[in-house]
Design a protein that fits this description.
The chain is built from 8 helices and 7 strands. 30% of the residues lie in helices and 22% in strands. The longest helix has 15 residues.
């Protein structure tokens, strides 16, 4: 049998969500994940079966979710969790748009600090309170807003691994920017003076007088 109109709409909605390069989750009021798009799967590095029915902090490896056997939502720090508060506010009062949050994740044997923009929209459901949770990772942009150590002589910058590299390489590594090279007018005049003869004096002005030789 061909798919019903409802199934076709559901398939189309799934394809649209998977095409959006932001992590999108369907969560309940306890931030338990009931659905996610392809970008969220890639961010977590887990298959959907490993994520569904887990709470957000547990799936994101939030440091505070490991502080208590109760997991995400059970730590004292969870009372001020921006993601949890955004979901609560979104369910109670409507949309939360790009609220800034900081999250400390466990990564291997260390910890990683990330910064997020959190957006929450209520999701209509007749049986339970659900919300669409959108997470935008702005960690790299935030790092670039902080003070970046730069050499006062060669103008190279120091990266997170304490290595010095050129500004274009630094921005390429952090933001994926590609550069094309040119030369500014001041440097061009300094390096290639033969290509820049002295400009003609403005109209109505006489050229500068030649110096008068000293008489002995």
């Amino acid at each position: 049998m061909p798919p019903s109109p409802l199934e076709q709409k559901s398939s189309l909605a799934s394809r649209i969500l998977d095409a959006i390069p932001l992590s999108i989750f369907l969560v309940d009021e306890d931030v338990r994940i009931l659905g996610l798009n392809a970008a969220a799967q890639q961010t977590l590095g887990l298959a959907p079966a490993e994520v569904l029915q887990r709470r957000g902090g547990e799936a994101l490896h939030c440091l505070h979710s490991l502080e208590t056997p109760a997991g995400c939502g059970g730590s004292p720090a969870c009372r001020t969790c921006v993601i949890r508060l955004a979901v609560r506010d979104g369910l109670e009062g409507g949309t939360v748009i790009r609220r800034r949050a900081k999250l400390q994740r466990v990564s291997g044997d260390g910890r990683v600090n990330i910064e997020l923009l959190v957006t929450v929209n209520p999701f209509p459901d007749p049986e339970q309170r659900l919300a669409i949770l959108v997470l935008e990772d702005i960690t790299e942009l935030s790092l670039l807003q902080d003070l970046i150590p730069i050499c006062c002589h060669c103008k190279r910058v120091r990266n997170d691994s304490q290595f010095w590299q050129s500004v274009d390489h630094y921005l390429s590594d952090h933001l994926g920017l590609d550069f094309t090279h040119g030369i500014c007018p001041d440097c061009a005049r300094s390096l290639y003076p033969e290509l820049f003869p002295d400009p003609e004096p403005p109209a109505g002005q006489s050229p500068p007088a030649a110096p008068v030789p000293e008489q002995s």
